[in-house]
From TrEMBL:
It comes from the Bacteria. Residues 20-62 are annotated as: Disordered. The lineage of its organism: Bacteria, Bacillati, Actinomycetota, Actinomycetes, Micromonosporales. This is DUF4034 domain-containing protein.
């Protein structure tokens, strides 16, 4: 009998096929599944070792060598637990499931700012969807600015344009500072952060004056500009007005958690109390129901993953042990059940599914995590939560996805 020959059994995960392909003109979701892994994996600092000995800045070939499964393991996975999901592709454009938003971004690139305005206006009083669309379009100005300049020139006092400007400046301020600790942030970075935050605050003040009676989003953006030295009383005043307009706004309370966490101006206890209060009062399906899960991710960041001198393997093991505490696991299961019991707002549903997938990986629920990855689909914009445990968004997503699909041993996830 001749030797059994297996030719290219799983082309989707060949190392040479793992370079990311980012296409800005493809239609979301209707396109065929991508097969890429990003050409560069984000991480906290160059050369830093990562959990399991990996460098978060290594390229796709190195990642492929580390996680590329053998033919037998792939065949076993296919026979025992269904077909392999498409390898995730990190493509912020095709990850957009909001088709009207996707179309508006396409038209804006072509110079039609009226499409951007219309898609925001069409969100009506779904304030989270409106905020999501404003945020997405504001980030488009990083690479395509002409359409927004035309909008400002044509309608400088348009309330929607002013909100997009405020969000754009706030985003630029965060980018200028970066995500490093204060001792790793340069004077120039801080200067840019303070200057742009002040400009964003001015734009927010104008947006507040122009906003409708129930629109909370200018107050949501204003909170993000206050980390440069506002008092707690000032912050709480803006927060309360935002709450009056939308008691369970996801972005509003996300900023409140950031302000009240130990990393900034609060404590673990204050952060958890804020998250649990709003989650408990929020209706089933509301995005705010899962804010306690975000609080847990902030907790492990500060307790186990903070600083440059820690042991990465030990830090990851501590994260696993923490989430596997019976009281922690039971609490999070309860919040997930409440969120699933309602109709999730699609504006933030993909981000929240990533939080859940990460949690299931940390508590060793392979099938549950794989089911959530299947919900997420092949195109992904990795959430910040992955960096809270792994140090890099894309790196963490790749490692967890491989484990969830039975292609990586459980030794260190």
């Amino acid at each position: 009998m001749g030797r059994l020959q297996i030719k290219d059994p799983v082309p989707a995960i060949r190392p040479q096929a793992m370079a990311a392909r980012v296409t800005h003109t493809a239609r979301p979701r209707q396109m065929s599944a991508g097969r890429g892994i990003p050409s560069r994996v984000a991480g906290p600092s160059p050369g830093r070792r990562h959990a399991g000995g990996a460098d978060p800045h290594e390229g796709p070939r190195a990642i492929a060598r580390r996680y590329h499964p053998t033919v037998l393991r792939v065949i076993y996975r296919h026979l025992t637990d269904g077909p392999l999901l498409p390898v995730p592709e990190f493509d912020t454009e095709r990850a957009i499931l909001d088709l009207p938003l996707w179309n508006a971004r396409r038209d804006a690139r072509r110079g039609d700012w009226t499409a951007a305005r219309a898609v925001i206006e069409e969100a009506g009083d779904d304030w989270e969807l409106r905020a999501r669309r404003i945020g997405s379009l504001s980030r488009l100005t990083d690479t395509d600015r002409g359409w927004f300049d035309s909008w400002q020139a044509a309608a400088p006092s348009d309330p929607i344009a002013v909100q997009v400007l405020a969000e754009t400046l706030s985003h630029q301020a965060s980018s200028a500072r970066g995500g490093a600790t204060a001792d790793k942030t340069s004077t120039e970075q801080f200067r840019g952060f303070f200057t742009l935050s002040a400009a964003a605050a001015d734009a927010c003040d104008l947006a507040m004056k122009l906003a409708g009676p129930n629109d909370p989003n200018p107050w949501v953006t204003r909170l993000g500009t206050m980390f440069t030295g506002a008092s707690t009383a000032e912050f709480d005043g803006v927060l309360e007005e935002g709450r009056r307009r939308d008691p369970f706004h996801f972005g509003l309370h996300g900023s409140a958690l950031a302000w009240r966490c130990e990393k900034w101006f609060g404590s673990h206890d204050l952060m958890f109390a804020t998250a649990r209060d709003v989650a408990g009062a929020a209706p089933e399906g509301a995005s705010a129901v899962l804010l306690p899960l975000l609080a847990h991710y902030e907790y492990v960041l500060r307790e186990f993953n903070w600083g440059e001198e820690k042991d990465e393997d030990k830090a990851l093991a501590e994260c696993h042990r923490y989430f596997q505490r019976p009281e922690v696991e039971a609490e999070i299961d309860g919040w997930i059940a409440k969120w699933r019991a309602g109709t999730p707002n699609p504006a933030n549903a993909q981000t929240l599914r990533q939080w859940i997938a990460l949690f299931y990986c940390l508590v060793d629920r392979r099938k549950a995590s794989r089911a959530v990855f299947e919900e997420l689909g092949p195109y992904v914009d990795p959430a910040l939560a992955w960096s809270r445990v792994f140090g890099g968004r894309e790196y963490g997503y790749v490692v967890a996805w491989y484990w969830a699909n039975g292609l990586k041993r459980r030794k260190k996830l």
